[in-house]
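Input (structure):
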C-alpha cells in the first residue's frame, strides 16, 4: 500500500471517528441548548475564527510546502506563531466588550474571553502539527485528534447539562485545544523542543503573509453569514443556519478535510519532485465526488427525519436550509481541492487573487440576501459555489491545464453513482413519507438502499475506486485468515 493511500485511509479513519464523537455530543447538546444560544456562540466563534487566520499567519502551510526547511526556519515559524497568537489573545480580550455592545448581547463577552485563552495555548502545538502533516505522520495526528475530540465532547455535554448555556461550548473548545497541546508535546520532531526565534522572519513572512491574507479573506467570507446575519436576522436565525451548516459540515469538514490534509503534502511532494499533477488531481476529484455527491443527495432527501432524530422538533426550520445547502455542497465538491494544489505548488498569489474576488462577491451576496430571510441566504450560497468553480479553474488553468471536459471525464461516473444511490432514498421520501410519527423506518430503508446503490453503482459504471474496495476486501480477508490460523 502506497504511503499516500495509507495516509488517506488513516486520515479518513480519524475524521470519521471524530464525526461519530461529534454526532453523539451534538445530538445531546441540541436538546440542551436553544437556537438562540447556539446563535450567540456562533457569532462569537465567527470573530475568533477570523482572528485564528491572523494567528496562523500561513505558518502551517509554509512548513508543509517549503522546499528547503531548516531548523532556523522552523524556529522562526514558531516564533511568529507565538508573537501573533499572544497579541491576538490580548486584542480579543480587550475588544470583547465592544463586540458584545455591537450585537447588544452582553453575554457574548464571556464567550470571547474564554475563547481568547485558546490563543495562549495554540502556539505550543501548531508547529508540531504542521510538521506531522508535512511528514504525513497521520497515525500521530489520529491519536491527538481523537483524544481531543473526546475531551471536547465530554466537557461540552457536561457543562451544558449543568446549565452553562453557550459558555459550555466555549469551555469545551478551550479544553480541546489544551488537550491537543499536551498530546502534541509527545510527538515533537527530532529537534526536540521548538525554541522560537525570529532569525528568518523575512523568508517565512514572504509566504506566510500572503497565505495569511488568503485565509483571512476566506474566513471573513465564510463567517459573513454569522456576522451580518446576527445583526440583520437575529441570533435565532443564525443558530438555525449554524445547525444546518453543521450537519452539512459533517461531510465537508470531516471527509473533505481528510482528503485535503493528505492532498496538500502529497501535491507539494509531487511538485518538489517535478511530477505533472494533472492526473493525480483529477483522480482525487473523482474520488472526492464519489463520496460527496451521494452524501449530499441523501442528506437533501432525508433532511427531515435526520434533523428530527438528531436535534428534535425545535430545529424543524433548519430542514429547508439543509436541503438548499446540500445542493451547494454538490457544487463545492468539484473545486474543493483547488486551493490545495495551488498551495502545494507554492502559487499563493493566484490563490490570493481568486479569494479576494470570490469573498468580496460572497459578502455582497450575504448582505443582499440577509435583507430578506435566512432561506435567501442559503440559496445565495449555491450561486456563490458555482461561481467559485469557474474562478478557481481559471486560476489553475495556466499551471495545470484542466478543461471542463477533463472534469466531466473525472466525475461523470461519480454522478451516475449518486443517481443509483439516491433511488431508494427517493422512494422512501415520496412513498413512505417521513413524519413526526414515522421517522426511523424511511430513514433506515433509505440508508440501506443508499449503501447498496452506492456499491452497485461503483461496479455498474466501473468507477476507478472499485479497485480500492477490492484491495480493502482482500486485505480484510488476509487479516481474518491470519487471526483464524
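Output (sequence):
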Amino acid at each position: 500500500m502506497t504511503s499516500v493511500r495509507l495516509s488517506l485511509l488513516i486520515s479518513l479513519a480519524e475524521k470519521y471517528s471524530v464525526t461519530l464523537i461529534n454526532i453523539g455530543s451534538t445530538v445531546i447538546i441540541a436538546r440542551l441548548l436553544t437556537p438562540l444560544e447556539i446563535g450567540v456562540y456562533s457569532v462569537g466563534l465567527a470573530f475568533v475564527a477570523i482572528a485564528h487566520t491572523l494567528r496562523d499567519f500561513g505558518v502551517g502551510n509554509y512548513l508543509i510546502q517549503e522546499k528547503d526547511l531548516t531548523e532556523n526556519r522552523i524556529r522562526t515559524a514558531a516564533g511568529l506563531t507565538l508573537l501573533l497568537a499572544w497579541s491576538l489573545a490580548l486584542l480579543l480580550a480587550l475588544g470583547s466588550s465592544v463586540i458584545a455592545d455591537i450585537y447588544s448581547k452582553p453575554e457574548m463577552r464571556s464567550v470571547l474571553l474564554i475563547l481568547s485563552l485558546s490563543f495562549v495555548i495554540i502556539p505550543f502545538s501548531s508547529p508540531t502539527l504542521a510538521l506531522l502533516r508535512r511528514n504525513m505522520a497521520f497515525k500521530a495526528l489520529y491519536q491527538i485528534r481523537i483524544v481531543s475530540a473526546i475531551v471536547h465532547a465530554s466537557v461540552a455535554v457536561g457543562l451544558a447539562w449543568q446549565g452553562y448555556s453557550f459558555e459550555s461550548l466555549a469551555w469545551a473548545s478551550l479544553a480541546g485545544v489544551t488537550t491537543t497541546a499536551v498530546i502534541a508535546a509527545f510527538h515533537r520532531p527530532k529537534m526536540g523542543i521548538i525554541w522560537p526565534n525570529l532569525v528568518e522572519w523575512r523568508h517565512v513572512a514572504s509566504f506566510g503573509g500572503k497565505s495569511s491574507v488568503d485565509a483571512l479573506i476566506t474566513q471573513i467570507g465564510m463567517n459573513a453569514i454569522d456576522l451580518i446575519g446576527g445583526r440583520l436576522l437575529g441570533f435565532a436565525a443564525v443558530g438555525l443556519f449554524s445547525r444546518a451548516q453543521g450537519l452539512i459540515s459533517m461531510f465537508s469538514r470531516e471527509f473533505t478535510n481528510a482528503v485535503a490534509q493528505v492532498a496538500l503534502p502529497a501535491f507539494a511532494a509531487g511538485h518538489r519532485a517535478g511530477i505533472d499533477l494533472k492526473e493525480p488531481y483529477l483522480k482525487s476529484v473523482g474520488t472526492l465526488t464519489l463520496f460527496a455527491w451521494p452524501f449530499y443527495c441523501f442528506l437533501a432527501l432525508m433532511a427531515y427525519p435526520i434533523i428530527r432524530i438528531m436535534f428534535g422538533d425545535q430545529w424543524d426550520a433548519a430542514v429547508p436550509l439543509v436541503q438548499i445547502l446540500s445542493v451547494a455542497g454538490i457544487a463545492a465538491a468539484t473545486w474543493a481541492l483547488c486551493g490545495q494544489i495551488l498551495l502545494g505548488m507554492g502559487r499563493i498569489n493566484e490563490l490570493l487573487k481568486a479569494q479576494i474576488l470570490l469573498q468580496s462577491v460572497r459578502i455582497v451576496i450575504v448582505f443582499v440576501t440577509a435583507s430578506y430571510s435566512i432561506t435567501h441566504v442559503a440559496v445565495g450560497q449555491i450561486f456563490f459555489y458555482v461561481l467559485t468553480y469557474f474562478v478557481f479553474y481559471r486560476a489553475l488553468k495556466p499551471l495545470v491545464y484542466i478543461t471542463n471536459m477533463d472534469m466531466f471525464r473525472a466525475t461523470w461516473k461519480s454522478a451516475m453513482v449518486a443517481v443509483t444511490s439516491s433511488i431508494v432514498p427517493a422512494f422512501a421520501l415520496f412513498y413512505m413519507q417521513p413524519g413526526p410519527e414515522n421517522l426511523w423506518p424511511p430513514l433506515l430503508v433509505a440508508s440501506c438502499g443508499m449503501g447498496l446503490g452506492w456499491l452497485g453503482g461503483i461496479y455498474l459504471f466501473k468507477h476507478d475506486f472499485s479497485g480500492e474496495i477490492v484491495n480493502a476486501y482482500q486485505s480484510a480477508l488476509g487479516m481474518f485468515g491470519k487471526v483464524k490460523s
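Notes: The two ends are 23 Å apart (CA to CA). The chain has a mean pLDDT of 90.
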